[in-house]
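Anyone else keep sequences and structure tokens together like this?

Example one:
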Amino acid sequence: MFAKWRVGFVSALALFSASLVGAPAGAVAGSGVAVPAVPTAASAAANSGPVCWYGACYDYVSGHQWTNTTGVSVLMKVDAPIVNPAQTGEHSLQEIALQNTARTSTVEIGWTVDPELNGDAKPHLFVYHWVDGQESCYNGCGFVQVSHRIRPGMALRPNEAAHFAIRNIGGDWWVFFRDQPVGYFPGTLWNGTYQSAQLVSVFGEVAENTADTPSCTQMGDGRFGSTGGSSWIRDYRIAGTTDAPELAVSATSPSRYDAGQVTATSFRLGGPGTGACG
């Protein structure tokens, strides 16, 4: 049984790598879709300020693309941003996400500094998903673990550069870290209705308790994305599409978190929030 699983891992990884599109050229597909009731990183307008939903407010520096795809891969820097120690429920993360047209079904993988979730101030690997607009839970709720070394929830090394990827293989949504398969969300969670994604998002996110009191929580390494030495996302690739990779990048609160050095497949991101906590 182990040998069969191992062959499956290698085949899945090879299929994912071979099908990625990495050269930024040509036009991208237009959206032509209805905007959903639930806000997302991609639907948050530039300079709009924090987006509030589900009992919290969120600032984003986001790159997104409308297309029709079965996979995404990026190289991301892992950081250890300071999260406001005086508030509960705040976090800072970077991730990639694939969503359907209505933005109600989602698969996500990334890293997060979330003291309430993880019990410390270190960056941790996480996975998450939505089914028909319904929340789930971090690192579980149907996720099938296959790796013996890499587990959602494990602590990561700050300053590490690592590949994060999502790919639909055989109807299941597989997630990859450091070019290794971690596990998958079975397609049966969506009753087989979610087989491809129409929206790709790669972004940094800061969760705040209220939009009226901006947070001191950092994004990335705390440096603005428009300055040198800040965090970054690069080598953006998509699979199962003839569209070229082409990120549209925006920031909800650029006075606190912004982007810089934007290309079709990369951007810098981060910021100090309101400044030093304390």
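And example two:
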Amino acid sequence: MSSGTPAAPSAETSAGFSAGTSASHFAVPELFRGLFDDAAVFPPGNLPVVEAVPAHRAHRTAWYADAVGPFLCGAGRLGELAAAVESTGPLRVGLVLPGGSAELGPALTAAAPFELAGVELATRDTAEAVAELDRLLPPDVPAAVELPRELLRGDGLDETLDVLVDSAYRAKFRTGGVVAEAFPDEDELAAFLTGCALRGLPYKCTAGLHNAVRHTDPKTGFEHHGFLNVLLAAQETDHAVAAEVLAERDGEVLAKAVRALSGHQVTVIRNSFTAFGTCSITEPLDDLAALGLLSPSPLVQEDR
């Protein structure tokens, strides 16, 4: 793939496309359904819970609702979240536990008022995390185990992924953060993606992926992966090929590759790369709109 510049964001935001219209009237392509978990309260967005909850509810009723995953919340903010939703109805929540296995039991108790969409458990001991999830997690609740990047170097990658292959849980990989060192390069990310692909191990990602195309942030200088790059690389089992896809900076090249995907390829990709956490829902949608990959095409004629 050739190098270039990322597509400019559309001047018309995604929310501007009839956001108040019933989601049942529009189709979100299968490749993007449930892809964007709402991490608005996490850095760098840091939206207050009292603002993030109504914003999430608006996303869940907009035409692009099928693209939006659960509301992500850390264990330490569940009380704040409970107060914010007390009189506004149920909320699907993804529980994020950065403190490891010791947080799991108390957090599950605290999350009782919510519809638990899943658990994301960070750990430095994958086997211990799997054992605790097996012991405490309700059988109908999915989970992802966040793997520290430093444990995935050398033989650690194979050993760690092999533990998860024999479990009921996804892997979770951090693709960015608030410092440059939090962003893995394309070789490191390709090793994770192809390691999972070779094992048939599903995963989610988090941080730094709110734009579609790989780019250098003009304000911070950080190298951001694009979520379209990751989607396309998710079907690859060859490290060099995956790294090349992750390095692509031309949005039109990526969009053309997305349009050429077969239904089977889309299924393979989304069975692998299941979702990512983003502090902005509208930014990734705007990028897709700018590339001509998402628009509110009606499924049925609206009443007039």
